[in-house]
Amino acid sequence: MFPVEIKENVYWVGAVDWDIRDFHGYSTYKGTTYNAYLIIDDKITLVDTVKNPFKEDLISNISQIVDPGKIDYLIVNHVEMDHAGSIREMVNLIKPEKIFCSAMAQKTMLAYNLPADYPYQVVKTGQNLSLGKKTVQFIETRMLHWPDSMFSYIPEDRLLISSDAFGEHWATSERFDDQVDHNELMVHAAKYYANILLLYSPLVQKLLADVQKMGLDIDMIAPDHGIIWRGRPQVILEAYDRWSKQITTNKSIIIYDTMWQSTEQMALAIADGLIREGVSTKLLNLSRNHRSEIMTEALDAKAIICGSSTLNNNMLPRMADILTYMRGLKPVNRIAAAFGSYGWSGEAVGQINQYLEEMKFTLADPGLKVNYRPNAEDLQKCAALGQYIGQMIKEQN
Ligand code: FEO
Predict the structure, then answer these.
(1) DSSP tag of 177
(2) What are the helix and strand counts (H, E) for the chain?
(3) 3-state SS of 309-326?
(4) Residue with the nearest Cα to atom 2 of ligand 1?
(5) CA–CA separation, 18 vs 21, rounded Å?
(6) Averaged pLDDT score across all residues of the chain
């Protein structure tokens, strides 16, 4: 790739990772990017670095604009390895006069064994850094999504460099939102929110309110992954408002795993009942759907219905995987139910219920179990459960 000027004298100098397919458990089936930004001013400033294997891309991009040795400042908005993994090499190359970061970022860099004698300069929300013609305002965004995270805002350019927030895992040759398919962009943005930020939704609400209170004039949002929002940054700000309020729709998802298709037959019958009630319904077989795709579907689903056969006195392992993952991401205010076929012990339904109760979901049923293969009466019970949940959804939405 090559650098792209996103505002006058502000350049994207990051890297595109076309190959990554697993980002610590998140399915990045279309790759990702590691965005870094170079500001040319009296004080030449690099904002963030890239994942270590991509450091040569970063250096090459910077070198097409300026000798990296001429960079004065390094701003570290976030220390997760996909942005800070090449700090050591970049500091050796740049020898920056100062490294600006939050107090938690400094602490974390030391915990990652970076040298204590780096020229760290800890900054806080509200502090300004003059680069010459441009100013950087720092905004700490603790736990969005790490304790060290912060934004860098450049008022002269109405530019918010937003670290992980407002990003997507999507490798593209294009850099801006108006150059790509909008619907696909929003699918990737929703997936990113559902899998990375959903648990921090109350903090996102607070951050959006704070940004409004601070009166930041923003016409471009440049995240550390994926596409840069220019012209209409309110599109992603409004989406974050909606997602962080966990607003659900007339939709249900049925997540299931099955050994000999009995639990699958139950899932299909429950779906019939839901569809009969006019509820948009998705069947998500765990052997076919990745956990991060399922969480994306869960983002706006009012009902989350989970089914598993019992194997060796337990739910099937893929069901334990998705329930553990989902519980960590903290979806709220959902209707739920558990179901499954069993042979002789039948613990799976009770175990699923424990997870659903921990997530404080409203259980529509104590748990629907079928011995071995569902008969016509069992399938009617499943359809009736689907209809009942469908009615609950319509009442609550
Ligand atoms: Fe993209 Fe939290 O790192």
Answers:
(1) G
(2) 12, 25
(3) CEECCEECHHHHHHHHHH
(4) 80
(5) 9
(6) 97
Residue 332 predicted with pLDDT over 80: yes
- Alpha carbons 304 and 97: distance in angstroms, whole number: 53
| Residues with a known catalytic role | 24, 78, 80, 82, 145, 164, 192, 225
Sorted by sequence, the CB contacts under 8 Å of residue 17 that are 6+ apart come out as 31, 32, 33, 34, 51, 54, 171
Torsion sign across C-alpha atoms 297, 298, 300, 306: positive
What DSSP element (H or E) covers 153?
Answer: strand 150-154
User: Which pair of structure tokens corresponds to residue 334?
Assistant: 């959902």
Residue 331, CB-side half-sphere exposure with 13 Å CA sphere? 29
pLDDT band at 1 (very low <50, low <70, confident <90, very high): confident
Residue 305 is which amino acid? I
Residue 169 has pLDDT above 80, yes or no: yes
* pLDDT one-digit tens code per residue, 85-99: 999 999 999 999 999
Q: How far is the CA of 164 from the centre of ligand 1 (A)?
A: 5
Tokens in use for 281?
């319904």
Query: Would you say residue 277 has pLDDT above 80?
Result: yes
Look at the pTM and tell me if it is higher than 0.85. yes
